[in-house]
């Protein structure tokens, strides 16, 4: 039996949709259920519904063989897993945003939930910045002078707009990824490849 | 808050009791298997000059060195692995010893930072190096040996993934060096999405070849995977690597371990010195590899003694999490005595020790049974009375004592002289 960790929240609807199209039987209440473990006996798959940020951890330690999670979280956690597929949904942009007169090349303090992305992006520009690590409402930081700009995910751009901020530069494009545990990728190669093939065929 | 002198440096651990006995047992079993394949033990210093490691490690690995300074200000490093120090010894001390050389070790290694998975700063590696043997049979020997060792430890479900550095390099070779480096890094990071994204940006590559490049890293399997590798091979170098793979499998088959292995065309081990077949071993109860190794035909040359070589190491702390069985615990006995019964207590203890019991003796000032905690759980406890009798609730100890008294062993046994 394969264990697959799925990220709850933003991507779960698209994930379930994709799994169904790919021939995996999920219960009808899959998206609403409060159960954390769901078994599909026919396909011999067990799904774990986890907090997105924990999915890479489950897979890295082998508690799950496979996982579906956003690239933003995957990169930020730096998990040691096999990254097998770009699933093409959950598409988002990670941007530098701030008041529109901000000069990105002169920024020194950046507030973000994504310290790794932020540090790497500015290092590529030859800038060593101070990262202010926040857990949420990152848009607040430039308004109260905590940071000059932010690095954050943007879907529609409405939150930025309503707080008088604009996207100044793109850091990365992210989408949902299928990842595999290192042991499972080798020891359960046939099952893993079958899962990959099904998801790949139904893009 | 605890003062710092009560803490361990981060990434280290204390080991004792059953865990430590199990670890020692694992090391002993592995060394016994190494010896049974004709490997001698070797020990090298915990510290080497950084220049020594620079011969074998690339930039990011050198950043991870645990560095210190000697009195003249030269930079030393705690060894991050054993292959490079062994290569140094083989090129210097053993310069005139004919190859093939078979060397083995169980040694602690160090890295400066806790890595991913909170990998510890201190890691025990039990491994082997086979130096001066070029044929795939040498690689098969290393794999068969590791398989034997893992079986000896009672690990039932494990597998080796086998890659080939020369195949990977040959496949990427016609591309620009900067592009190659990006693709290599994607494979090292096990990021096939990035690998394919990089390839997708290449417009001036022949589409058929592009397809080969895109497909090959995902291919894993037995002989059919080698056939697939041969189909995709672009030049003689890649074909030669396929020949080596085939021969390796023939040798593994002869060893009877072929079914424990499979080929992984995309396996890329992040060590600068690997040149040919590379290996990674997994047990089904652990999410991370338990052993790794491969062929490093260039490393000895850098120390001035050109010789092909191959080797493999197991991560002992990870084996510790994998292994169920362990050493047989000796039956532990705790004897208490009053000062006047000292001679009797010591000679009975010596009698027991000769029969492989583990015996601790403690002097007490009054004759009373200590609390259960003091007797300690799982230990068999006895107390000598002022009259020279043994009080115990353990029937086995009672029987041994009675036999000891009645057989006259107490008079003739050499207990006294041993003490």
From TrEMBL, chain A:
- EC number(s) on file: 2.4.2.17
Q: In which pathway does it act?
A: Amino-acid biosynthesis; L-histidine biosynthesis; L-histidine from 5-phospho-alpha-D-ribose 1-diphosphate: step 1/9
Q: Fetch the Gene3D superfamilies from UniProt.
A: Periplasmic binding protein-like II
Where does the record place the ATP phosphoribosyltransferase catalytic domain?
Answer: 51-200
Q: Where in the cell is it found?
A: Cytoplasm
The record, for PROSITE patterns, names:
ATP_P_PHORIBOSYLTR
The enzyme's main class, written as a single word, is transferase
Record SUPFAM superfamilies? Periplasmic binding protein-like II
Q: Which GO terms describe its molecular function?
A: ATP binding; ATP phosphoribosyltransferase activity
Q: Which family does it belong to?
A: Belongs to the ATP phosphoribosyltransferase family. Short subfamily.
This chain's function reads: Catalyzes the condensation of ATP and 5-phosphoribose 1-diphosphate to form N'-(5'-phosphoribosyl)-ATP (PR-ATP). Has a crucial role in the pathway because the rate of histidine biosynthesis seems to be controlled primarily by regulation of HisG enzymatic activity.
Domain remark in the UniProt entry: Lacks the C-terminal regulatory region which is replaced by HisZ.
Report the protein name in the record. ATP phosphoribosyltransferase
From TrEMBL, chain B:
A GO cellular-component term linked to this record: cytoplasm
Named from the GO MF annotations, one term is: glycosyltransferase activity
* Superkingdom field: Bacteria
Looking up InterPro entries in the UniProt record yields: aa-tRNA-synth_II (IPR006195), aa-tRNA-synth_II/BPL/LPL (IPR045864), HisRS-like_core (IPR041715), HisRS/HisZ (IPR004516), HisZ (IPR004517)
Q: So, what pathway does this thing act in?
A: Amino-acid biosynthesis; L-histidine biosynthesis; L-histidine from 5-phospho-alpha-D-ribose 1-diphosphate: step 1/9
Question: Which PROSITE patterns does the record cross-reference, listed alphabetically?
Answer: AA_TRNA_LIGASE_II
**Assembly and oligomerization:** Heteromultimer composed of HisG and HisZ subunits.
Q: Which SUPFAM superfamilies match?
A: Class II aaRS and biotin synthetases
Further notes on this entry? Answer: This function is generally fulfilled by the C-terminal part of HisG, which is missing in some bacteria such as this one.
Q: Which residues bind L-histidine?
A: 81-83, 111, 125, 129, 273-274
Q: Give the Pfam families listed for this entry.
A: tRNA-synt_His
Tell me where it resides.
Cytoplasm
- For this UniProt record, give its keywords in alphabetical order, as a comma-separated list: Amino-acid biosynthesis, Cytoplasm, Glycosyltransferase, Histidine biosynthesis, Transferase
Name its GO BP terms in alphabetical order: histidyl-tRNA aminoacylation; L-histidine biosynthetic process
Does this entry carry the keyword Metal-binding? no
Family of the protein in this entry: Belongs to the class-II aminoacyl-tRNA synthetase family. HisZ subfamily.
Summary of the function given for this chain in its UniProt record: Required for the first step of histidine biosynthesis. May allow the feedback regulation of ATP phosphoribosyltransferase activity by histidine.
Q: Which gene encodes it?
A: hisZ
Domain called Aminoacyl-transfer RNA synthetases class-II family profile: residue spans: 11-268
Protein name in UniProt: ATP phosphoribosyltransferase regulatory subunit
